[in-house]
Design a protein that fits this description.
alpha/beta; D-Maltodextrin-Binding Protein, domain 2; nine-stranded mixed sheet; 13 helices
Length: 379
């Protein structure tokens, strides 16, 4: 299956703020045949030839974010092609599941769409002997609001209206709030079928953070919640499950990473952010919001603070950044060389470039530089 469109963004789009080789969020579920297509193609051999194995050997277990599963698949394919005898097993089970496995010592690496909470950091110290779990941003991109509504190709919504839809306070497609935002659109008098994640998810958490900032009067739930906090709506497992449900259900709406919308040919909502024009869910527009990210972590932790409330022209504020979570100290000796070599590759220019053609949002150059400096110090 091929992506239906490419939203490629070159680093020159935001100058020195972004990495020359774009980091990419290629969202992909772990158990659904509607996964986004893999990027890279015949570039694999060339990319693999430049990888430094640096003593990598044996098996490395990793798990977590389904949003980065597609990116992981590409990286793993290239890394294993370059490093004989190495097996990297990444399970896209969701951010919450990945963090749980990491803090139980079952995996050496976890993927998460949100930074570790304080209690999760404290828990990580039990498995990171003499150290702690740290957040290393690796992949970024937009969270798309996908919908299926016959005859409506360009739907515009704002944060308060979306919050009410997902909280079951707006239940009809021809509700006044929606019609005001879409004059001239043929909106039916039918029930909105809103889908959310059934599993713990960093994507859900980032959506909640966006609502809490952009629509605080209409979203009263804990913005840190990874489990769906509202009482109603329909649930599906993983981003792949939500995308499949939206694709198959007339009158539906749901949230998932942009590549799911592209792969499944699902229409996406443009956001009325208060800028002069509605903002579409594209990698270019998401990167304008990601460029405003600030580092809130200290030391070897590169947790980011995202600006979900930006009204900058062309900035799509409903974004996420996916982290790799690893021990800064106390890694198992048998997996440490493979862990470091693999992360050195994923954050390298080469690791980024193989994903840039898929068209996802780059991270600020200064953030990538911080991660590149930290990975070799893991011990």
């Amino acid at each position: 299956m091929k992506l239906s469109r490419k939203n490629g963004l070159r680093a020159s789009a935001i100058g020195a703020l972004v990495v020359s080789g774009a980091l990419v969020l290629s969202a992909c579920g772990s158990d659904n045949n509607s996964e986004p297509a893999k990027a890279g193609g015949d570039k694999t051999s060339a990319a693999a030839s430049n990888i430094k194995c640096d003593g990598a050997k044996g098996q490395l277990l990793a798990a977590g974010s389904s949003a980065q599963k597609g990116a992981m698949d590409l990286w793993v394919k290239n890394f294993q092609a370059a490093c004989a005898g190495v097996e990297i097993n990444y399970q896209g089970i969701g951010s919450g599941g990945g963090i749980t496995k990491f803090n139980q010592g079952q995996v050496a690496l976890a993927g998460s769409d949100s930074a570790l909470k304080e209690e999760e950091v404290a828990e990580s110290k039990k498995v990171c002997a003499g150290g702690t779990g740290v957040n290393l941003p690796m992949v970024g991109g937009p969270i798309a609001i996908g919908y299926k509504l016959e005859g409506v190709d360009n739907l515009i919504l704002d944060a308060p209206t979306l919050a009410k839809i997902f909280d079951n306070k707006i239940t009809k497609w021809n509700d006044e709030a929606i019609t005001k935002l879409n004059p001239g659109a043929k909106l039916p008098d039918s029930t909105i079928q809103a889908f959310h994640r059934s599993d713990e998810s960093g994507t859900t958490q980032n959506l909640g953070k966006y609502f809490s900032v952009a629509a605080p009067a209409d979203w009263k739930y804990d913005p840190k919640a990874k489990s769906w906090p509202a009482q109603k709506g329909q649930a599906a497992s993983g981003s792949s499950g939500v995308a499949s449900a939206v694709k198959d259900t007339e009158g539906s709406i749901g949230y998932f990473e942009l590549s799911f919308a592209n792969a499944n040919k699902i229409s996406t909502v443009s956001l009325n952010t208060g800028a002069s024009a509605p903002v579409a869910a594209t990698s270019e527009n998401a990167s304008k919001a990601i460029a405003a990210a600030k580092v809130k972590g200290t030391g070897n932790d590169v947790a980011l603070s995202l600006d979900y409330g930006t009204k900058a022209e062309g900035a799509y504020p409903l974004i996420l950044v996916t982290y790799e979570i690893a021990c800064d100290k106390g890694n198992k000796a048998e997996t440490l060389p493979t862990l470091k070599a693999f992360l050195n590759y994923t954050v390298s220019d080469e690791g980024q470039k193989i994903l840039s053609d898929a068209g996802y949002a780059p991270l600020p150059a200064e953030i990538a530089a911080k991660v590149r400096a930290i990975v070799p110090t893991l011990s």
